[in-house]
């Protein structure tokens, strides 16, 4: 591209990252990110795309490691990457890990990046796995600023979490 005086943009790079991952060329995707970051494409956009691509090819462990590395380095994951990461972790039955990751994201003030469905998934999972302290903490947050999504609201009300606060 550069030989033709074309500057890669975010959409092209993200498409290449996804394509490389689908073809199982993850190392090449990482090399591409190293080449293009700082040249019109943000580090956060690239790594968020890589996290999502890794999840797509069922490499959740690698995606989670990369996601946590992003948080440690101060790179802000995209809203989709945050929500998808927590959703996938909860989907594996690791709701407490999902809640801890949520707390980490919130501590870094990235919580606005999480869609409202995730709060519902977390609360239902915490209730179902008898993590009442964590469920109560999350329920308190929900009372302040987040509205539950159907059908999760009925499940949570059945668990009697919100009425005990």
UniProtKB/TrEMBL annotation:
The keyword Repeat is assigned to this record: yes
Protein keywords: Repeat
InterPro entries on file: PPR_P_subfamily, PPR_rpt, TPR-like_helical_dom_sf
PPR repeats: from-to residues: 43-77
Signal peptide boundaries: none
Entries under Pfam families matching the protein: PPR
Record-stated family: Belongs to the PPR family. P subfamily.
Stated name of the protein: Pentacotripeptide-repeat region of PRORP domain-containing protein
Organism: Gossypium darwinii
